[in-house]
Design a protein that fits this description.
The protein has about 190 residues and is an all-beta fold. The chain folds into 2 domains: about 1-95, 3 Solenoid (Pectate Lyase C-like), CATH 2.160.20; about 105-185, E3 ubiquitin-protein ligase SopA (Pectate Lyase C-like, 3 Solenoid), CATH 2.160.20. Helices cover about 0% and strands about 20% of the residues. It has one helix spanning about 180; strands at about 5, 10, 25, 30, 45, 50, 65-70, 90-95, 110-115, 130-135. Strands 1, 2, 3, 4, 5, 6, 7, 8, 9 and 10 form a 10-stranded parallel sheet that branches. It is elongated.
Length: about 190
C-alpha cells in the first residue's frame, strides 16, 4: 500500500484527539493552535513542517521522522525524542515548554533551543555539539557523557554540567553561570568577575 502524502497543508484549530492525523508524509505543512496531546504520531514523517502554539504533550513518537521541523510556542511535556527515527533528525524550538522530555542518545548537533523551558530533560549521551541554548531554563536537566563541544550556554541558566563527564571543548558559558559547572564541588561563588 502506498504511503499517503500531504504537501503544504494548513491544519488550524484541529483537535487531533478526535480526528487523528493519517499515517504518511507531511511536507511543508503547518499545524497551528492544535491539540495533538497523547495522539500517536508513530511512523509519521514530518518534513519542513511548522508546529505553532500546539500541544504535543505525552505524544507517542516511535519511529516518527522530524526533518527540518520547527516548534514555536508549543507545549511538549514528556516527549521521547529517543524513540524517533534518527535518520535526518533536525528540529528547532522557540518559546516551547519541553519539561520531562528525553533526548537520551539523540544526535541533534547545531540544534537551536530559544527561550525554552527545559526542566528535567534527559540529555544523557546526546550529541549537542554546536547547539545553541538561547535564554533557556535548564533546571534539573541531566547532561551525562554528552557531547557539548562548541555549544552556546551564555544566556541560559539553572543548568548543572559536570565538565569531567561531558565533552565541553569550546563550549561557551557566561561568567555568571560558572556555578552550574562547579556544582559538584560544593563551593560558593560570590561576586562578579
Amino acid at each position: 500500500m502506498a504511503s499517503l502524502y500531504f504537501d503544504s497543508q494548513v491544519y488550524e484549530d484541529v483537535d487531533f484527539k478526535i480526528i487523528p492525523p493519517e499515517k504518511g508524509d507531511y511536507e511543508n505543512c503547518s499545524f497551528e493552535n492544535s491539540d495533538l496531546s497523547s495522539v500517536d504520531l508513530s511512523e509519521i514523517r514530518f518534513i519542513d513542517c511548522t508546529f505553532l502554539n500546539c500541544n504535543l504533550s505525552l505524544t507517542p513518537m516511535r519511529h516518527t521522522a522530524w526533518r527540518g521541523t520547527k516548534f514555536i510556542g508549543c507545549k511538549m511535556l514528556g516527549l521521547h525524542f529517543d524513540d524517533c527515527n534518527s535518520l535526518g533528525l533536525k528540529v528547532f524550538f522557540k518559546n516551547c515548554i519541553l519539561n520531562h522530555s528525553s533526548f537520551y542518545r539523540v544526535k541533534i548537533p547545531k540544534t537551536i533551543f530559544s527561550e525554552c523551558q527545559l526542566h528535567e530533560i534527559d540529555f544523557t549521551e546526546s550529541n549537542l555539539s554546536g547547539a545553541q541554548f538561547n535564554h533557556c531554563d535548564l533546571l534539573n536537566s541531566v547532561f551525562e557523557n554528552s557531547n557539548l563541544e562548541n555549544a552556546d550556554f551564555t544566556s541560559s541558566y539553572n543548568f548543572t554540567i559536570d565538565p569531567e563527564n561531558n565533552q565541553i571543548k569550546n563550549a561557551a558559558f557566561s561568567a555568571g553561570s560558572l556555578a552550574g559547572l562547579l556544582h559538584k564541588y560544593k563551593i560558593r561563588i560570590e561576586g562578579g568577575l
